[in-house]
Amino acid sequence: QVQLVESGGGLVQAGGSLRLSCVASRRTFSSYDMAWFRQAPGKEREFVAASSRGGGSRDYADSVKGRFTISRDYAKNTLFLQMNSLKPEDTAVYYCAAGRRPYSTGTYSSHPDYDYWGQGTQVTVSS
């Protein structure tokens, strides 16, 4: 029903920047809350940032607040994550997610409440 394709990952030095993109199916893009999660080796999947379906609400994990920015381009059916001042601890596979209920139920930071997922893009930050 919803297809998500991430891109933009790569290898950067600490202090550098990357912009991740997630292209969603055009028909349903505006009907879904969307979010970014990440998972490092040996760690649980972690919430990074979320955006409500209309873009009016944006929320961030404390660990990335002030450094990362989530945004949506409805004309391009694309979700972005601008990552600045990257740290080695940001190294992880980053996943794009979409769901109908997270903001409605107040669970935007909970990965089980998202219905659709991309395959992920690797972000590696070197020291």
List the helices and strands and how they pair.
Blueprint: E1 4-7, E2 10-13, E3 18-24, E4 33-39, E5 46-51, E6 58-60, E7 68-73, E8 78-83, E9 92-99, H1 102-105, E10 116-117, E11 121-126
Parallel strand pairs: 2-11
Antiparallel strand pairs: 1-3, 3-8, 4-5, 4-9, 5-6, 7-8, 9-10, 9-11
What does this structure look like?
By secondary structure, the protein is mainly beta. 3% of the residues lie in helices and 46% in strands. The strands form two sheets. Strands 2, 4, 5, 6, 9, 10 and 11 form a seven-stranded mixed β-sheet that branches. The N and C termini lie far apart (40 Å).
Task: Write out key terms for the chains shown.
127 residues, mainly beta, four-stranded antiparallel β-sheet, 11 strands, 46% strand
State the low-pLDDT regions, or none: none
Q: What's the total count of β strands?
A: 11
Measured by DSSP, the beta-strand proportion falls in over 45%
How big is the Rg?
Answer: 13 Å
Fraction of residues in helices? under 10%
Mean pLDDT metric:
95
* Strand-pairing-aware structural class: mainly beta
Order of helices and strands: EEEEEEEEEHEE
Q: Between the first and last Cα atoms, what is the distance in angstroms?
A: 40 Å
In terms of quaternary structure, what is this? Answer: single chain
Major sheet: 7 strands, mixed
SS summary, helix count = 1
- Backbone shape: globular
